[in-house]
Amino acid sequence: MWLRAGSILFALPAIVLLSLYGIEMSAMTDCSQSGGHYDFIRQVCSASEQPAISYYQRHTLLVNLMMLVSVAGTFAMVWGMLLHGMSRPKD
Q: Using CA atoms in the order 80, 83, 85, 87, what is the torsion angle rounded to 10 degrees?
């Protein structure tokens, strides 16, 4: 049980963060291909040039919490491996 839960906790934050980042990058690409400049703070396409602000700077709490969940998943997997012990396939 610990291995399965740990695996989910380990992988899910990366999937969530990559999905959110990808959606934002898709909007930015659409904006730049239409000749505009993407405003990362207001998340709109603008005619004037906007400063580029990293995803982490704008969503620090979300990224940090997701990484904390991932680390918790790592510890859960390790605990599950310690409880389960080494196992060999049965012939």
A: -70
Structural domain includes residue 50: yes
What secondary structure letter does DSSP report for 59?
A: S
Q: Which domain holds residue 16?
A: 2-84
Q: In degrees to the nearest 10, what's the CA dihedral of 87, 74, 5, 61? A: 180
Structural domain includes residue 22: yes
28-72 residue pLDDT tens? 999 999 999 998 888 899 888 888 888 999 999 999 999 999 999
| Encoded amino acid at 24, one letter | E
Sign, CA torsion 75/80/82/83 = positive
Residue 89 located in a structural domain:
no
Mean pLDDT, rounded, of the chain: 90
- How does strand 44-46 pair with strand 37-39? antiparallel
